[in-house]
Amino acid sequence: MGIRIYKPTSAGRRNASVSDFADLTKGAKPERNLLRKKRKTGGRNNQGKITARHRGGGHKQMYRVVDFRRAKDGVKAIVDSVQYDPNRSARIALLKYADGEKVYVIAPAGLKAGDSVMNGPDAPPTTGNCLPLKNIPLGSSVSCIELRAGRGAVLCRSAGTEATLQAREADWAQLLLPSGEVRRIPSVCRATVGRVGNTEHMKVRLGKAGRARWLGRRPHVRGTAMNPVDHPHGGGEGRTKGGRHPVSPQGKSAKGGGTRQKRKASNSSIVRRRKSRRYGQLKLH
User: Fold this and answer.
1) How far apart are CA 35 and CA 56, in angstroms?
2) Is the whole model's pTM more than 0.85, yes or no?
3) CATH architecture of 22-46+55-199
């Protein structure tokens, strides 16, 4: 997978780049039985209030049903194709099991059409196989990690992400996550061996505002450009710098403070917290 840069035939093309999609299987089409309608929310909750700002519009998409549990044990599957998914940064692989069932899974780097994968405790720890953490060798790179056994993968599902299995003790496995956090996870939880594919996703440059709108991203408006009724930074005679420490539209501090609950039950599972960007800047002074 690489990045393609076009000739600067226009202002938008000059700074834009796209994926070359070399990791996709040519001629592959989405599996119709695994497609679902996807309704847009525009960042609004069930009461119609905007809870996630700067979202709306975008191209129509069909949702691909992805199997995050990988609970079909002991049955070999052949990778039918590696496909593009408009709903996520990672690629997805269409697996065809020996009994004829087809499912989508997150495609790890290096997986291609024709490869064989397997799930369960008896699966070998090779790229694309899903098995419990207790059966994976230490030092391995894993992705699509469960936090609770049988609930499905929740960690390291986006393009290029991976975690490192550092240690095992009793019924716990210790993982180094991409954020730098070290966390304990029950060793019976499953993970997929290998790093998630499409590793150069973050190097793609949109190049123009229109491509952001295609993705459903609306413009970000500065608080100082608003009226007082719309934002705490709004209003004033003439242009101002705000006159106060930066806050959200609801008046909460926007200086990067922690939002995690102090008494969250899973706090005991964190061995070492990630270093926040703000903390790192403070250490330099």
Assistant:
1) 22
2) yes
3) Beta Barrel (2.40)
